[in-house]
Amino acid sequence: MHIVVLAKVVPDYEVPAGDFELTNSRAHSRYKRMMGLYDENAIESGVQLKEKYSASLTIVSYGIKADIQVLRKAVAMGGEKLSLVLGGSDDPNVIAANLKMAVEKLEDVDLILAGQQSADMDRGIVHGMLAEMLGFAFIPQVAKIEQEDGQWKVIQNTESGSSELKFGGKAVLSITSVPENVPRIPVVRSIFAAKKKPVVQLPEIEGDAMPVDELSVDIPKMESVCEFLPTEDDPAETAKILLGRLREERLI
Amino acid sequence: MGRTPYWNIDLGILIDLFALPMIVIFFYGMYGHWKRIRQGKVRVNLDLSKSAGKIGPVYLYSLLTKGILGTKIYKKIYTGVAHGGLFWGMVVLLLGTILVFLNVLFGLPVFSGGFNHWFMAFALDFAGLAVFGGILFFLVRRLLFPPERLTEPKSRTGFSPIVLLLGVVILTGFVVEGGRIACNGIDNGSFMGNYLSMMFGKGDEWLTLHRYMWWIHGFLALGFLAYIPYSPLVHLLLVPVNAALADPMPGTKMGLIDFSSFEDEESEEMPVLGAAKLADFSRKRLLDYSTCLWCGRCHEVCPAAQTGKPLSPKGVIITLAECLQDGRVEDDSLIDSLTSEALFCCTTCAACMEACPALINQPKTIMKFRQNLVMERSEIPELMGKANSSLELRGHPFFGTGAGPNDWCKDLDVPLFEEGKTEYLLWIGCSVTYEERAQQIAGSMVKILSHAGTSFGILEEFRCTGDPAKQMGNEFQFAELAQQNIEDFSDLGIKKIITMCPHCYNSFTRHYPKLGGNYQVIPHSVFLKSLLKAGRLSLNRETNTICYHDPCYLGRRNAIYDEPRDVVNSMGKLVEMPRNRNESFCCGGGGGNYWAEEVGTRINQVRAEEALGTGADFIATSCPFCLLMLTDGAKKFTEDQKIFDIAELVALQLEER
User: Is B224 within 8 Å of B166 (Cβ atoms)?
Assistant: First the structure.
């Protein structure tokens, strides 16, 4: 069994709003680069499957050469190989085409896992497009995966509940964050071993960009507005008022 | 008239011959302990520097005071006195027995004159009485009114039989003495023997009884001595050894791990990181486990054990002691039997270590297990794991913070450290940077230092010292951060550092020097005291009462108790909590537990309640983590802001020049 996990290196997704700024419509280059939050959940899920079913695990990414240092953490967590397509496009179609190319160079891939959305663009569409291109099934927001009678059984978490799904054949699964796939801290010997593992670097292929032009990118401005709610004897009443106000402002 | 040795006893010298096999049994038992202890790793302490009172690995002062005089025992006065009576009584009785033996063999004149009167008669009777009193105290307490610390998580068996045996030895000794005096006349000084002699007659049946009792007393005494190494009383011998080898420097030192062997692909055997089984520990640690008395003083002061957490330091040590006794040194299920939930509850406050009369280093054992869990098995509670990841990714553990690195100083004019121009680096630290409440400490320090005309500056960019990673068991992460800091400091020529966080102070002074970072580091409370003493600050002294909470990493771990109190006294009237100075109770935030989902009663609420219970107008501390934890804990009891860092209080009381 061969499992691939897609990982993307993104700017620090926890930069406080007051400190965040854009250059060329993207996060400023001074921010530290790290793996996406959901991608780490996907890697953890992949490592657990590898350990449970004696599978092999390859990390595939699309990005710049400097990302290798960050991606080694994925290898240290349990990945065996690292394959990086060198490119700088933000277009989901181009990224998906390049990931398809990288996956096809690996033989006998059975399952592809990816974080449900990247921590920078938050689009959550690349893995779906990749599934389409590969002819694989696609299941979003997967929380749990296990094999049963030669098929895969997964739990899909949605906003209002969860579904249990079963499928055979190959698939791309987008992984959501649940307590069971909290990313592990790599053990020290794996950190050192990861430094020595070779990285397959692939040149980018030209893909068809989506016919969409980015006109502008804005980030919300920080505003501080303070409103004192009337103090009620019953704190539950105050909480209700607060909830009402938050709904009015469409903050929840 | 002098006493006749072996009076009424035929072939009494045989008892001395019987002593020989008993001595063999005794030493065989001690050899068994050594055999178990030597299964630990040999860790050579390279620092064999000739410090005062230290010969080789032996700390003489510690051996004398804590090991032999047992000074820590007397913190509990009743237990201490009973213990002292029993121990010193036995020592005196043993000495008396040896003197009798020397009298028989070599004619040493011990049964005449004042020595006979005061030592061989009075002192030996008094010693016997002291031992008997001690025995009664321990039997009554253990069997009838055992305190929780003795029974939780479980009681030690084996004390009562040997203590009872000793009691019989003492009683038979008195009876024999009484019999002898009944026949030979009053022996001045032997007040117990003289009293008991009144119950004896002088006929043959009494002489026969005396003979039987003499032999019974002799054999039981020898049996008792031979049995010591196989019983809990072996601590009589092991505690002094443990004390002699325990570094008297306060707090736990975790040493450094050499990670270079992981770089070497040819290396056949990788070192085990931390410890998962007994064989991974040093001989000193195995000596710790053999020495443990199961007295539970550690359990009694442990903030985790006292607030319903699954950890008991006594539980950890006695589990290891039993495992060692059973010969399971290679049993790597040991770490699982202790559970990671329990091991991560330790706040590393070192209260257990401070309380331990046997000088056992409980935190070091727990930390070794943590190191193994984190660095070998990736096992760490979720929030601590996130803090670790944040340290790796961002250089600070405050994941999800809404604060930027410069938010704390956005309205302040703070100079940057300039090489060759600035004297002190004001080290801000991560909690002061990223936690809104703690940011005010830095603002206050900047105001104070500017007011005093101190040459200081801050770093443009900084990262954590690595202390949280180290306390959570991630020594590798600590080493990475520390190395980077040391390089930065070296580039800037930093020599003097003022810290606002005792955890940073502890890292800089205890761990950085081993990595090549040597600086003059001054905690802000000490620096404030020096400014006041030099007259560079003057404060409006008010009538407010101020209660001071000792941070564990400043107090117990670095013995800094007086300077912050002096600062407090210069602003108001100092009041103390019931648990203060080296007996202070932790705020609950140490050992990475600032990032923990606490079970049981919240430690910070317990401490905040104790502080508020003093009725003080303000509660001062000198650690940002304590400030944050106690502020949170106090919310359960009051809406008033009562918890402050001493720098905040000083800044408020500054007199304008």
Answer: yes
Contact criterion met (CB below 8 Å) for B629 and B594:
yes
pLDDT digits (tens, 9 = 90+) for B495-519: 999 999 999 999 999 999 999 999 9
Q: Is B425 helix (H, G, I), strand (E, B) or coil?
A: strand
The span from the CA of A79 to the CA of B185, in Å, is: 91
Structural tokens at position B297: 């003083």
Number of domains in chain A: 1
CB contact under 8 A, A192 and B380: no
Residue A111: what are its φ and ψ, rounded to 5°? -145, 135
Can you tell me the mean pLDDT for A166-190? 95
**Structural domain boundaries, residue A19:** 2-203
User: Tokens 């049994």 — which residue?
Assistant: B25
Question: Which whole-number Å values give the CA distances from B648 to A222, B411, B497, in the listed order?
Answer: 29, 17, 19
Element (H, E) at B384: helix B382-394
In a domain, A74, yes or no: yes
State percent of chain B over pLDDT 90: 82
Whole-number mean pLDDT of chain B? 93
- Residue B393: predicted pLDDT: 92
pLDDT tops 90 at residue B291 = yes
Compute and round to an integer the Cα radius of gyration of chain A. Answer: 21
Q: What is the CATH number of the domain that holds A44?
A: 3.40.50.620
Question: Is B404–A18 a contact, with Cβ atoms under 8 angstroms apart?
Answer: yes
What digits encode the pLDDT tens for the residues B367-381?
Answer: 999 999 999 999 999
- Residue B48 has what pLDDT? 55
Q: Would you state the pLDDT for residue B404?
A: 87
Distance from CA of A132 to the nearest CA of B (A): 34
Q: How does pLDDT run across B520-532, given as a tens digit for each residue?
A: 999 999 999 999 9
Q: What is the pLDDT of residue A232?
A: 64
Single pTM value for the model: 0.92
Residue A183 included in any domain: yes
CB contact under 8 A, B376 and A186: no
CA neighbours within 13 Å on the CB side: how many for B494?
26
- How many angstroms separate the most distant Cα atoms in chain B? 101
Nearest alpha-carbon partner for B345 in B112, B75, B590, B533: B590
pLDDT band at B656 (very low <50, low <70, confident <90, very high): low
β-strand partners of B643: B619
Determine, for residues A187 and B377 on separate chains, whether the beta-carbon distance falls below 8 Å.
Answer: yes
pLDDT interval class at B44 (50, 70, 90): low
Task: Among A34, A39, A185, pick the best mutation site for testing chain B contact (most B Cβ within 10 A).
Answer: A185
**CB proximity list for B47: less than 8 A, separation 6 or greater:** none
Tally the C-alpha atoms within 13 A of residue B369's C-alpha that lie toward its C-beta. Answer: 27
More confident residue, B502 or A239: B502
Q: What is the pLDDT of residue B5?
A: 83
CA distance A97 to B21: 86
Judging contacts by C-beta atoms under 8 Å, the chain B residues touching residue A16 are 401-404, 407
Nearest to A113 by CA among A166, A184, A45, A183: A45
A209 lies in some domain: no
Residue A211: inside a domain: no
Q: How far apart are CA A114 and CA A175, in angstroms?
A: 6
Give Cα separations from B518 to B422, B487, B493, B555, B557 (angstroms): 18, 12, 11, 22, 19
**ipTM metric:** 0.87
Question: Could B401 and A183 be called an inter-chain contact, meaning their C-beta atoms sit closer than 8 Å?
Answer: no
| DSSP assignments along B188-248, one per residue | TT-HHHHHHHTT---SHHHHHHHHHHHHHHHHHHHHHHHHGGGSGGGHHHHHHHHHHHS--
**pLDDT tens by residue, B422-446:** 999 999 999 999 999 999 999 999 9
Q: Which of B513, B621, B491, B505 is nearest to B568 (CA)?
A: B621
